[in-house]
Automatic annotation (TrEMBL):
Enzyme kind, highest EC tier: oxidoreductase
Record-annotated 1-deoxy-D-xylulose 5-phosphate reductoisomerase N-terminal domain positions: 4-132
Binding-site positions, Mn(2+): 150, 152, 226
The protein's Enzyme Commission number: 1.1.1.267
NCBIfam families on file: Dxr (TIGR00243), PRK05447.1-1 (NF003938), PRK12464.1 (NF009114)
Xref: HAMAP family: DXP_reductoisom (MF_00183)
InterPro entries registered for this protein in UniProt: DXP_reductoisomerase, DXP_reductoisomerase_C, DXP_reductoisomerase_N, DXPR_C, DXPR_C_sf, NAD(P)-bd_dom_sf
Family: Belongs to the DXR family.
Pathway field: Isoprenoid biosynthesis; isopentenyl diphosphate biosynthesis via DXP pathway; isopentenyl diphosphate from 1-deoxy-D-xylulose 5-phosphate: step 1/6
Gene Ontology terms for molecular function: 1-deoxy-D-xylulose-5-phosphate reductoisomerase activity; isomerase activity; manganese ion binding; NADPH binding
Residue ranges constituting the 1-deoxy-D-xylulose 5-phosphate reductoisomerase C-terminal domain according to the UniProt record: 146-234
Lineage: Bacteria, Pseudomonadati, Pseudomonadota, Gammaproteobacteria, Thiohalomonadales
Protein name per the record: 1-deoxy-D-xylulose 5-phosphate reductoisomerase
Function: Catalyzes the NADPH-dependent rearrangement and reduction of 1-deoxy-D-xylulose-5-phosphate (DXP) to 2-C-methyl-D-erythritol 4-phosphate (MEP).
């Protein structure tokens, strides 16, 4: 039996992961589940999966969880606080760690899994954006395995030869074609972008996801973060990655070879496919996803992205090219701006403006170690919050 920790079990990816695991009770055993503060859902999951540990960051929530489980599932040990996440990511009895916490909060537990030499199923792209060089080095040094859950990166992984780590040139790859749906505002007149509401922005045409990544998809910062993620995962540079708008979300990405071949991975837009792939790799298991009906799809469209409509895509590319702590600053400023937009404190179009301002205020530093990265993350949050406070006074 393969032991699994699911970090971020109560989120969109966490729930899809448990759905796949429930189809293979003789192959995988859930050792630990974690969540931030959603007690109800974690109680249900603990009752259904009977993990050895359940960890909650919020201490009050952890107390409530412990009280509820005392009668419902007394064998589950409840842990509280940030340290609990790192503990369950590194347990001896755990083989695989699903890293599905959203945002910078996922970095420390994901790194703990890397240091413990686990197979990491990485959904938490922000961890890699913040600390790419360091993260990849920890994976290498500790013999961990890193398998991408992000549907595009999982697709690219499936389209690559097994020895791609030798270098993309060495294996005859000239480009990665990273597909993007373009989100809900692909065709909205530019003059109306300033008035869109959080509800309109989270309504993604093809995917059902958490709120933060849904806003990132609407600004296309999600694709920007994914360009950075792809650079680290596949050892390449931004100029080798072409973002392709593909509104149907059926092709999940493509790899282009020097002999003229382009290899693509297709499937219904359902995260259980990449999750099942990464869980079973190099084997295949049932994910619960319907087989793609190619006749029903019928049309596949492609167009280049519009950087004027989606300035976040440009900002992410520039931050990656600048390197060092710039991607961590970009990520932190984006988290602040997205939260402010979701709370109705700033308009949609303020998201790229606050990020650009923050990047301009904080010069590049060498991302030498974790303390430096977290210092810059904190500095970027201060600058972005201050910009919002001054630019949108009166709105709380
Ligand atoms: P979500 O908001 O639905 O769930 C987030 C999870 O993280 C929850 O379990 C929550 O309890 C936990 N969490 C939140 N804040 C935390 C904190 N401060 N400390 C500890 N835990 C915390 O998010 P999601 O859509 O499942 O996305 C998770 C990650 O996967 C993100 O990095 C996202 O970019 C990535 N991803 C998601 C999808 C998708 O389809 N949802 C696709 C590709 C990549
Ligand atoms: Mg993706």
């Amino acid at each position: 039996m393969i032991g699994i920790t699911v970090l971020g079990a109560t989120g969109s990816i966490g729930v899809s992961t448990l759905d796949v695991l429930s189809r293979h009770p003789n192959r995988y055993r859930v050792v630990a589940l974690t969540a931030n503060s959603r007690v109800d859902r974690l109680v249900e999951q603990c009752v259904a999966f009977r993990p050895r540990y359940a960890a909650m960051v919020d201490e009050t929530a952890a107390e409530q969880l412990a009280t509820r489980l005392r009668t419902l599932a007394p064998e589950v040990e409840v842990l509280a606080g940030q340290k609990g996440l790192e503990f369950v990511a590194a347990l001896d009895e755990v083989d695989f760690v699903m890293a599905a916490i959203v945002g910078a909060a996922g970095l420390r537990p994901s790194l703990a899994a890397a240091r413990a030499g686990k197979r990491i199923l990485l959904a938490n792209k922000e961890a890699l954006v913040m600390s790419g060089a360091l993260f990849m080095e920890e994976v290498r040094r500790n013999g961990a395995e890193l398998l991408p859950i992000d549907s595009e990166h999982n697709a690219i992984f499936q389209c690559m030869p097994h020895d791609f780590a030798r270098g993309l040139d060495e294996v005859g790859i000239n480009r990665i074609l990273l597909t993007a749906s373009g989100g809900p505002f692909r065709n909205l007149p530019l003059s109306e972008l300033g008035q869109v509401t959080p509800e309109q922005a989270v309504a993604h045409p093809n995917w059902s996801m958490g709120r933060k990544i849904s806003i990132d998809s609407a600004t296309m910062m999600n694709k920007g973060l994914e360009v950075i993620e792809a650079c680290w995962l596949f050892g390449t540079r931004t100029d080798r990655i072409q973002v392709v708008l593909h509104p149907q979300s059926i092709i999940h990405s493509m790899v282009s070879y020097i002999d003229g071949s382009v290899v693509a991975q297709l499937g219904n837009p359902d995260m259980r496919t990449p999750i099942a792939h990464a869980l079973a790799w190099p084997e295949r298991i049932d994910s619960g996803v319907d087989t793609l009906d190619i006749f029903q799809v019928a049309h596949l469209d492609f167009e280049p992205p519009d950087l004027q409509r989606f300035p976040c895509l440009r900002l992410a590319g520039e931050a990656m090219d600048a390197g060092g702590t710039c991607p961590a600053v970009l990520n932190a400023a984006n988290e602040v701006a997205v939260a402010a937009f979701l709370e109705g404190r700033v308009p949609f179009t303020a998201i790229p403006r606050s990020i650009e301002y923050t990047l301009g205020e904080l010069p590049r530093r060498e991302a030498a170690d974790l303390p430096t990265i977290f210092e810059e993350d904190a500095a970027a949050r201060r600058v972005a919050n201050e910009w919002i406070r001054i630019s949108y006074p009166g709105v709380l």
